[in-house]
Design goal:
The chain has about 160 residues and is mainly α. Helix content is about 60%, strand content about 5%. The protein has seven helices and two strands. The chain is globular and about 45 Å long.
Length: about 160
């Protein structure tokens, strides 16, 4: 789903359900904290491993990332609409948020699919360093929040 469509949905949701925004912000802050913990796990492993990789994860992404409505709504509670899309034509299969210096989205609020899925090499490194169980725990916590977000965001559709 494109960013413009997600933004329209977010604006509509915000107007129709202003009382949900406090809960949505709380979920966004929880997600940001969990993603920061994930970054600390990845910091000693990912830079070297990812730099040497020839099949970068973000090169196999949809053009506008893996944002679901829930991810996007949480993102928008902490940040403005992402405007850092590539100006030039994207490489086929490459996320538009991927720039030469890496992801242009904030490290603490990327789509959940982007932070919960690792390549086998990164998982092996985490395993060898004793961090895989913590990573799995953080993913499970993100899954729980994602479910609550989904329930909050879709509850209005059933009314």
């Amino acid at each position: 789903m494109g960013i413009e469509i997600l933004e329209k949905k977010f604006q509509s949701y915000s107007l129709q359900h202003p009382l949900h925004l406090l809960q949505l912000r709380e979920f966004a802050q929880q997600i940001a904290e969990l993603q920061q913990k994930m970054r600390r796990l990845f910091a000693p492993v990912a830079p070297e491993l990812c730099a040497a990789c020839t099949t970068k994860c973000c090169s196999g992404m949809p053009i506008e990332g893996w944002f679901t409505a829930e991810d996007y709504f949480a993102y928008r509670m902490l940040y403005d609409m992402p405007a850092a899309l590539k100006a030039e034509a994207p490489i086929w299969g490459s996320c538009s948020f991927l720039h030469p210096d890496g992801c242009s989205l904030p490290e603490d609020m990327r789509p959940l699919a982007c932070v919960k899925v690792n390549c086998p090499a990164l998982n092996r490194e985490l395993e060898e360093r004793g961090g895989i169980e913590e990573f799995k725990r953080l993913c499970a916590a993100l899954d729980d929040i994602q479910t609550k977000l989904w329930e909050l965001v879709t509850a209005h559709e059933e009314q």
